[in-house]
Amino acid sequence: MNNIKYYLERVAEIFAEEQFVFEPKELYEPIDYTLRLGGKRIRPTLLLAANALFGGKEEEVRDAALGIETFHNFTLLHDDLMDRSPLRRGQPTVYTKWGDNTAILSGDTMFALAWRYFLRKPSPRLQEILQCFNETAIEVCEGQQKDMNFERLPIESVSIDDYMDMIRQKTAVLLAGALKIGALYADAPEKEVKRLYDFGIHLGLAFQLQDDLLDGYGDTAVFGKKTGQDIRDLKKNYLILRALQLATPDQRLALAKLYNDTSVDEDNRVTKVMAIYEVLCLKPEIDKAITKEFDLAAEALEGIQVPEDLKTPLRELMESLNGRKK
Amino acid sequence: MNNIKYYLERVAEIFAEEQFVFEPKELYEPIDYTLRLGGKRIRPTLLLAANALFGGKEEEVRDAALGIETFHNFTLLHDDLMDRSPLRRGQPTVYTKWGDNTAILSGDTMFALAWRYFLRKPSPRLQEILQCFNETAIEVCEGQQKDMNFERLPIESVSIDDYMDMIRQKTAVLLAGALKIGALYADAPEKEVKRLYDFGIHLGLAFQLQDDLLDGYGDTAVFGKKTGQDIRDLKKNYLILRALQLATPDQRLALAKLYNDTSVDEDNRVTKVMAIYEVLCLKPEIDKAITKEFDLAAEALEGIQVPEDLKTPLRELMESLNGRKK
Question: Which chain B residue lies closest to A169 (C-alpha atoms)?
Fold first, then answer.
């Protein structure tokens, strides 16, 4: 029986074996750069582990693992351009290194390369697998649009429900989709596929809420980002939206003013917003929300009808994410 | 037996029946806007006609027709952003109307919507059809990158062969791909699919060379663009590259200077370059190149082993493009 370390290593090997540079090199070098930057590679790892959970053969999902990660990196490449993020994984982003046009076109090509991987091998359930991949891709785009819409709205008009729906689309459906695709390749029963998908959704929501937690309370040296970057960027996240719910009318006014007034100096805004978070005891609040999602994920995993020991890798991955510091 | 008018009208009806606006509307309204702008809709028309050529059922390719045109419009949307073109079909382009980020993300979503259309219906040859679509998409991206590379190069270092290879990828393969996909849905024999693909390649090359001709010699009122826009934008096209081949050493020096020196006033550059084209009798040269491609297209169409009268729609389309003024 395998553990999660085995799948993480397999994914690293699969990427190391693959070639990403073709002609014209101006198009493919940024793709190679992006795919070699690494990252956690959670999605292909989930895909391989989900496939094995139902007795699938690794050889049959190797390409799908490449496809799901290539797609994920395409979305990061375009998101970084749209968000004007200078760094990704500590390295310059593609648009800063090669310009906007290269970022657009190399991104488009990566989306098509993801499809090339998915189309390499036949499968009895190919149409269903591809539909799952594509509907997931559409939801990710919709989630990104909602995120951009939120940036333009005053914080008072975004509810926590709206926010959870946005992060479900922007982050959680791709983790869930990776698991579902792995299971479909192994021809898993419909009911189990559904449970595995739910596991992925809650894992994804927990993961995104952790990002919000780390943004407010992370150790800059470990997390790799400045504290309060979301506050600096005036991004809505769980902390600020929950703070608004818990705040007194005076605190609510102060928060709205700090968040909606772009003339306030950034460092000053972070200090003042964080001070209100302190008073409202917000950290236990977000910890509770994260724990709730991890519990729901664990429950979904528990419900899957396969021998318990086969679930070890997915349980290990979940546990390694729970309490992550970066 | 149908004629080309029938297929053009069917494509218009198919688009009129379809809904393109979903939530969030900020994402889908630019997509609806783009797909409703119209245009010639040559690619879905070719797809339907190619399918009928081999006895296919229109019902089975309706979605693929939507898919190929949605993909084409996605490439135009991103190209307009990369080229900073303010107008498309006489209307403001998406990035000028909604901003760069919306153009990026709505474009990405259109690519996924194209896939949704292609994935709607099963087909015994689905994997092959989807591979054809995707490899075509990759070639279109490669062609666009080569076009952008050429912009940065001095004209002396781009050969006509390089240029023909670029327009084959950027324009011709999508026409050829549309025809091939239509034929694959009708389960056409491999040999005939190959001939139809060649027909599309030469038709596409002729089409792009006509754009070059119209750029230099078109009637602005009919063509809808200023004469010499490629000269203004310092874009390589067939005219300038052929002019370089035919020029005396002095003329070649003058052309290179005019093309490589961005400080020259645009109108002045157009006048001077066009004067050299006049002396070199360039119009008959490009006419000859266009005729050659139309002849090769006609030859490929002739070789296809189906009753001659079934080829009428494709022959009509080819003839309607031959000699087009816009």
Answer: B24
